[in-house]
Amino acid sequence: MPVSAAVFFAVYGVPYTAFADDLKTSTPNDVSEVIVTANRREQALEEIPYSLSVLNTDEITRIGISDIASLASTVPGISTYNFGARFAAAAPPVIRGLNATGEPTAFRSFEQNPVATYIGNSPLVDGYFQLQDVQRVEVLRGPQGTLYGSGALGGALRIIPSPPELGVFSAHVEGSTGRLAHSSGTAYTWGGVLNVPVGDSLAFRVSAKEAYQPGFIDVYGVLKRSGSAISGIPLLADPADPVNSPGIITSKDDWNYQKSFTGRASLLWKPIDTVTAELAILNSHVNGDSGPNNNTQFPGGPSPVDPRVIFPAGGEYQAFSAIDQPFSRTTNMESADLSYDAGFATLSSTTSYYTTKGASVYDGTFTLAGYTAPTNFPLLNYYGGNPVNPRYINPSEFDDSVHAFTQEIRLVSSAAPSNVVDYTVGLFYQQQRNQGSWFDSNPGSPEYSVAEGCTGPYFAGASFPDCLVTSGPGDNHFVQVDTQQYKERSIFGEFTWHFTKHTQITVGARNSKQNFSDAQAYLIYTSSFLIPATPNSSSFSKTTGKVNLSYEYTDHQFAYATWSQGFRRGGANSFPTVGPLRECTCLLTYAPDTVNNYELGMKGRFANSLSYTVSLFDIEWDKPQISSPLPSGNLAVYNGNKARSRGFEVESSGPIFFDGLSYNMGVSYADATLTKPYSYPANDGTGHLLPGLVNGSAGEQLPGSAKLGTLLSVVYDRSLGAGYDLSVSLSHTYRSQEPLGLPGGYFSVQHSPGFGILDFTASLDHTSWKIVGYVTNFLDKRVNLSPNAQPISLSDFALLQGGYVNLPREAGLRVMYSYRSARR
């Protein structure tokens, strides 16, 4: 067994033959088997013929994984822009580097996510929720287009909630408290799980978790206001002088807090052994203020709006904002899973209805305030008056919502060693409605121009009394509303032929038919400019395939070869094709993008629980979708030409050196680049279409993921006697640098630097109690994850030269108590 020997020697550094003697004396009960349902049936982890990671409840608790962003930061091969829950709808996970969209804007994503996310059997579109009462998480790397359909371009995340248990009463409560560096606040969580049997055929399970993360960014420059976050008018420092009075400037410590709640209730009914029904409701809400953005470059000096106000210098964990920037998001999912075991196969149905709704306020004050030089077009005078309102602010509110109904029916053959053929066939239907709104306002500036005595509206070069500021209701000066409608119908199937006892081949396909429409309306009050919503539609039909060959060359040791495809739906953009905001008709629609994944791998496990996976992949990406603001400000999705991702993944875990000591390691490398250039004409912001203004070149690294990611975790478990068990863990994760967008066009591209983070946990178990001490970011490393990438023409705006930073060190304590009693 030369391959097994090589793997073992690489991990242990001792000959395989010495270990093989121990294997001969092991019993079958020594083999630690991990069961997954990635292929819609129960299988051992090593039988899955592609790269797959699994985290169980204990691992999720030990590592402290709380949401998808923290999952992505600890599992190699997954990336996301981790700027806080504020960006949950605009920062999807990325696997194997298959992403061409830059760092998130205030809006939600316009294109479909490149990774399919599921809660149980129900697809999740966008949203935010905590990983509470989760049985396991399965990370499926590589395209999963046949079983998981549109959106499984780079892979899939399957979050498997713990189901209700029949005949068992159980309860679990937990709480934690922690101190965050650079913050005066205290982090906390509380939560619990209750499982209640009702008779012999019913069980009810409910779980809840609330978490509070204190802020660690201090802000200066916030004006006190009356009213809402978008339309509230700044208060006067001198009420007797409404024209010349400055605003009331305040500062706030620990500004960027975040508070979240996730609850789930499920009811299981099993009237007979062959029939199962589970109904579930998930609710999640998160709210907070701003994000982990700081400014280290502002040297201090007068405000660009009111020079009488002197700002202090910037610094680490210091930000500047003229307004508060609250955000919130509510996510709900109702699902029904029904199944009937007919003996030869199981017929299953999953029905789900999903909604998410988010709102976020951003500060645009200092952006427009930068247009003060004589050579710049005097935009600020349109919105702030002439002279400029000394209390001028420009709040922007971004709202988004998703409503999605999904129905899937599957027929899955029963799993039996004697099967010659296994199969999964199914039908899928989804109807989805997305809406995004953008409101810009200048509260107080229209009132200021009236108090000033202006009588005519402002125009370029005008002087008093032509200085009225024109705005609409609530002092809104710009409104944009975008509505998308999407419908998909597909049929899919996979068939596995076990043509020898240890060799099998799987063939799969999926055909999808899609309809998409987009309608976008603009209203600019300052110029009385209205573009009504005009729907633009597209329809596509797509077929994807899959073939893999797997060979068990010795017990629990597999080699495999896989070809698989993934795709995302196409769509349409909505913007004017005539007038000052016109764009090229060539951008009105964008095509589905498709990947072809070629993968070779080996995986296996030994009797002492040592497991390993090694995979090599080469992925060809056709027509990669790119979402980006155009130079005119129009939002669009367009296709690149060709891209490619090549790399490898290595994972291994098991005992080392002596009893009680174990390790978990992972390495992921993905070299994802454009391989052919693309070029589109675009509006340069003055109404002129310029050829090649939107472009990309071959060789550019795709944004949003690091080439190299590593994880090394060492765990020591020891019994202290009298029912006390100690577990100590030290983990280090590393990510190499990653670009935050594609070069070319209007925006300069910055890079998130490479960095490593060290975490520590220690837990003590005694009967039903568990106490965990933890330190995340042990060395309190500060990393600027998102160096400022303002338009090149605005690069001297010192108040905008900020960046998002990672969470500082947190040290804390978790306490958990569990009770379990089986009914007699």
Structural features, described:
It is a single chain. The protein has 824 residues and is mostly beta strands. It folds into two domains: 1-30, no CATH class; 31-243 and 254-822, TonB-dependent receptor, beta-barrel domain (Maltoporin, Chain A, Beta Barrel). Strand 36 (593-605) and strand 37 form a beta hairpin. The radius of gyration is 28 Å and the shape is globular.
Q: What is the CATH architecture assignment of the largest domain?
A: Beta Barrel
- The total of helices stands at 8
What kind of sheet is the major sheet?
Answer: 22 strands, antiparallel, barrel
Separation of termini? Answer: 49 Å
CATH class of the largest domain: Mainly Beta
**Stretches with pLDDT under 50, minimum 5 residues:** 1-31, 790-796
CATH topology of the largest domain: Maltoporin, Chain A
Rg? 28 Å
How many discrete structural domains? 2
Outline: globular
**Mean of residue pLDDT values:** 88
Quick one: CATH superfamily of the largest domain?
Answer: TonB-dependent receptor, beta-barrel domain
Count of distinct strands: 51
Query: What portion of residues belong to β-strands?
Result: over 45%
Class inferred from helices and paired strands: mainly beta
What level of helicity do the residues show?
under 10%
Tags for this model:
53% strand, disordered N terminus, mainly beta, 824 residues, five-stranded mixed beta sheet, Maltoporin, Chain A, 2 domains, 8 helices, 22-stranded antiparallel barrel, single chain
Write the layout of secondary structure elements.
Layout (H helix, E strand, L loop, with lengths): L1 H11 L3 H9 L10 E2 L6 E2 L7 E5 H7 L4 H7 L3 E2 L14 E2 L19 E5 L2 E3 L9 E8 L3 H4 L6 E7 L6 E13 L5 E13 L3 E12 L4 E6 L1 E2 L6 E2 L14 E4 L5 E15 L2 E15 L3 E3 L5 E2 L7 E2 L6 E3 L5 E16 L3 E19 L1 H5 L9 H6 L10 E19 L7 E21 L3 H8 L3 E2 L8 E3 L7 E25 L2 E22 L4 E3 L4 E19 L2 E12 L2 E2 L16 E2 L2 E13 L5 E12 L2 E5 L5 E5 L2 E14 L5 E16 L1 E6 L5 E8 L11 E14 L2 E12 L2 E2 L11 E2 L2 E12 L2 E8 L25 E3 L5 E13 L2
Parallel strand pairs: 6-9, 13-22, 27-28
Antiparallel strand pairs: 1-2, 3-8, 4-5, 6-7, 8-9, 10-11, 10-51, 11-12, 12-17, 13-16, 14-15, 17-18, 18-23, 19-50, 20-21, 23-24, 24-25, 25-26, 26-29, 29-30, 30-31, 30-32, 32-33, 33-36, 34-35, 36-37, 37-40, 38-39, 40-41, 41-44, 42-43, 44-45, 45-48, 46-47, 48-49, 49-51
